[in-house]
Specification:
With 85 residues, the protein is of the alpha+beta class. It has helices at residues 35-38, 53-57, 65-84; strands spanning 7-13, 19-25. Helix content is 34%, strand content 16%. It starts with 6 loop residues before the first strand and ends with a helix.
């Protein structure tokens, strides 16, 4: 038996230049057939510049997978900054 998994990858780039990435299984976003339809489930998509990390973390329990992967991507980027900073 062969299995096939499909992913959406989400990345963020901090002002410092450090980046973080996270993936979401396509199956978690049933209406998504491409990136543009997937982002329609993301409130304020592309407009998070300047948002405080503490404010982002308050949305971690949201049922929207794309919100959570953006937050995880930010935390991943911050962890790289912390380890090199």
């Amino acid at each position: 038996m062969q299995s096939s998994w499909e992913y959406f990858f989400t990345s963020v780039k901090l002002r410092s230049g450090y980046e973080g990435i996270c993936f979401t299984l396509v199956d978690l976003i049933p209406d998504a057939v491409c990136c543009s339809t997937a982002t329609s489930t993301m409130p304020n998509c592309g407009k998070i510049q300047g948002v405080m990390v503490e404010d982002m973390l308050t949305h971690m329990s949201t049922p929207t997978p794309l919100v959570r992967v953006v937050i995880v991507s930010v935390v991943n980027a911050l962890s790289v900054l912390k380890s090199h900073g």
